[in-house]
Amino acid sequence: MGDxxxxxxxxxxxxxAALMSVxxxxxxxxxxxxxxxxxxxxxxLDLSGTWNPVLHxxxxxxxxxxxxVNYSGLPITEGSRLxxxxxxxxxxxxxxxxxxxxxxPYIYRGPLQMRFWTERxxxxxxxxxxxxxxxxxxxxxxxxxxxxxxxPAWAAHTWMGFSTGKWEGNILTVYTTHxxxxxVRRDGLPESDQATLVEHFMRHGDRLTHVSIVTDAVYLTxxxxxxxxxxxxxxxxxxxxYPCEEVEEVEGRPRGAVPNYLPxxxxxxxxxxxxxxxxxxxxxxxPETMYPEFEKVIKNPPPPPTDPLALDEVTPMPxxxxxxxxxxxxxxxxxxxxxxxxxxxxxxxxxxxxQVGDMGVLIVDTGLAxxxxxxxxxxxxxxxEKPLQYIINTHVHPDHTGGNMKLRAAGVTxxxxxxxxxxxxxxxxxxxxxxxxxxxRMSAPDGNQPAAPVDAWPTDTFLGDRKTLWFNDEPVxxxxxxxxxxxxxxxxxxxxxxxxxxxxxxxxxxYPFIDLARGGSIQGELDALNNLxxxxxxxxDEEGGTYxxxxxxxxxDRWELIEYRDMVTxxxxxxxxxxxxxxxxxxxxxxxxxxxxxxxxxxxxxxGTTDGFVEAVYKSLSKK
Length: 624
Known about the structure:
Layout: H1 2-14, H2 16-25, E1 39-40, E2 44-45, E3 49-53, H3 59-62, H4 78-86, H5 104-107, E4 114-120, E5 127-134, E6 139-144, E7 162-168, E8 171-177, E9 182-185, E10 189-191, E11 196-204, E12 207-215, E13 224-232, H6 271-275, H7 280-283, H8 294-299, E14 334-339, E15 342-346, E16 352-357, E17 360-364, H9 372-382, E18 388-392, H10 398-401, H11 404-409, H12 417-422, E19 431-435, H13 436-443, E20 460-462, E21 466-470, E22 475-481, E23 489-494, E24 499-501, H14 522-535, E25 547-549, E26 556-557, H15 558-580, H16 585-591, H17 595-601, H18 610-622
Parallel strand pairs: 6-7, 17-18, 18-19, 19-20, 24-25
Antiparallel strand pairs: 1-2, 3-4, 3-13, 4-5, 5-6, 7-8, 8-11, 9-10, 11-12, 12-13, 14-15, 15-16, 16-17, 21-22, 22-23, 23-24, 25-26
Helix pairs in contact: 4-17, 14-15, 15-18, 16-18
């Protein structure tokens, strides 16, 4: 919370004069004039009631929607601009995008009715929370007023985010984190899932002013300040509903296809500028378009690029990855409840999924060897008495299998007497289940040095596409994904709890690591992501439902998987186009086909780098 407030302090200072003026107008004499609402001195103003937007403000954003490629006056990054120029409105015809909800920094911009009410402690009558129902997409927002902390970085994000508020005089100031990826402007300009929001709600009689300050280090160069007004509706008969249902709008679209424009090929790039007789550079936005000095740039605009696919001709050096580290920094293994009887362990290297119940404990992956003791301790907190019976490995890498030996030794396999009589080690520790390719890699059957000790190898392998268990009164579906991250990847679907553990097929911390040496491929990766999307189902408001535990990073639901699949598909399409042009791998790297995603997923060092990802995609697509 302290960091969030410090980051927004500069922007908030810009509003001091305006807020002081409003606060002065909202002084005590006003409340003796019979205006709607009750003045409650210990909590500021009462916002209760129904409010309608004043639609003449920013009409194009409020009702019809902004024109394509109208980014003027927005402090967007070069990556955000490329993201927007590549965005094809046909993407909204895809079933998985049709019911996309506007995030809290943007949802107040459209036509809506909203209602406020308070939740109070029944004994002290102190306000616990301010509730806000927003008719657009039927969103219920909670602003906690009881000083509770924000969730950890590895917790799930939602459309409205997690909000805490406080009264500053008669101004309600709200701090929001954990927001899903959404819009800065709904003509293709993105707001990342790293954005934070500060809001000020100011009431004067039957008018409510809402000021928002969005800080997004991924896609904005500086905080973005917006405001809108609402009028009190004393005769509100009810609120609109949004019963959105996904349908097939475009018949025959190839599975996994994501409509997008290759760099330089957006046919609408000049439409807005030509309509209003503006220089194109003015329509393309950026922080410079916000200030008077931009007039000099308009008079002497830079030349257009000679090759639209040579992105390095018109953009600066790659942006640093600005994503918040979702992993704990205290060296401990943390437990996050997911849903049903499923938990996520964070801090052991790769994420670990834990299922607990009357029959015992089942885990997916074991993390790094160095964290095994802390993982065992965390499991004992969840299940002090029941044994660890099953370990499932999603793939071979040591950040997911390093703890196999210790975790296996800490468990037990329940077997019949005939089995234990014939096979001496059948009940020695927990069973380790994996696709046969994992066993092959760990045991190095080609004669090379084994990758892991014998006691860490899988004890139960499967050769086909699927293995199933029934454990803790729940079907557990283990599905092999061919040639994705590696050739031995499995995803694990807990069908009753409705939770999927993906291994490193899906991560929130970086680009996919396509391990070509261990049988990975870009098409297998995309096939696996689309298979995951087929399994995941969102709730009515397009969040929750199926929860997804990635190999690394924070807890997700279907929306994060959609955005990740879209990103990987678009980059694949760009590199494929460059290969068709005859570009070498070094030329492709230099043209930076990932630029609009680098500030969120890029890395220049570590296990999976941006260059390594681009090279793996190039080589995978270049194979005969």
